[in-house]
Fold:
Amino acid sequence: MQVVTCKNCGTKNRVDEQRLKAGEAKCGRCGTKLEPSSGKPFVVTDATFQREVLESGERLILVDMWAPWCGPCRIIAPVLDQLAAESHGQYAIAKLNIDENPRTASQFHVSSIPTMLIFREGKLIDRLIGAHPKNVIAEHLAKAA
Structure:
């Protein structure tokens, strides 16, 4: 069994892996077809942030505010990839390039990077500033869940 979060309503569903792979699994609340988690961070932009993060339902989402020129951002990128692969649908990890998306960074008062924002039900519930080891980020995610 695997827990998969519905992308439509955010409900966590316990589903059989074979049914999930065969495309037969549906959300128990809204009936939307469930897809296996990609195990990778996804990219959000100023244009998609509202829909993919703030309106994501009950899903827990960590948003990594980063920039390509930021050394600490490049250091924690593999850590966030590992956490995404280990999430088992309990949370999602999104990446927002602040150079290309200044509106969202300004909206959440991001003044130094990397900054990781944790959202649940469209509300900011935690903030980590700076490069942290994997166990610290995982603890924040576990506490938020």
